């Protein structure tokens, strides 16, 4: 595993705190939460409970819209105590949280990838600054409608989230892979998967698709400010890096990470951020473990009580 993590920084005053199993940092507009779920034979219930805490904290702290989630899942393609794949077990708990708690926002943009560590780390970015729209891809079945052959409960996420705010809009692209309809395409073919992934991204962020969702904007691969690429096999890293650096021509920070992915037939996955008019809370990068993403920053900061 090549260690990696994103740190979101703010020019404003930042507060930190801890509530239940959650640790958080916030400025005026954004709330960042991280939580670690220890390894166990079955994770669905713990995932459901952590999501309940996340929904409660975002609700009462006044940052009601979850614009982005990252899930770093240990042994993602391994089996739990019942023989169910860990990722599918995770999806059961998450789907239950959405069904039972019915949060007041659409499906959030998300990433769900493997981690070299054990357990599950969930990182959340929520906001109260603007209007958030969930974006789907007309060439892909919404993940929350995947059929049960991919697991007892479908994954709960949207293909992207578009945040309209006075300081400049932000598009959060979910982890995107070589899936058409609900099926993995180009199984075993790295370049086929990468091409299809890039096509899916172009479709999601393109003008016709955004217009369909009531969003006024038109973007392409050259507009990305942050790109993170997850690659299943270390030997594929150089080839994937060459393609990505050639197509993401807007000189974004392109970061490659070796990671297992949510379906064992997926070889590559790409996520990213477009900051319209450059108005993104700055993103810094530092070497760290993905499965501990966010934790060191939060631990070093003075902890204050929750409001
Ligand atoms: C690649 C896919 O899903 C992955 C899993 C996600 C999750 O479970 O949160 C989100 C995006 C991707 O990281 C997909 O289904 O297209």
UniProtKB/TrEMBL annotation:
Which Pfam families does the protein's record reference? FkbO_Hyg5-like_N (PF21168)
State the superkingdom. Answer: Bacteria
> Which sites are catalytic?
269 (proton acceptor)
- Looking at the record, the residues that make up the Chorismatase FkbO/Hyg5-like N-terminal domain are 6-126
Q: Do you know which InterPro entries this protein is assigned to?
A: Chori_FkbO_Hyg5, FkbO_Hyg5-like_N, RutC-like_sf
UniProt: substrate binding residues:
87, 94, 146, 159
Annotated NCBIfam families: chori_FkbO_Hyg5
Q: Protein name, please? A: Chorismatase
Per the UniProt record, the source organism is Umezawaea tangerina
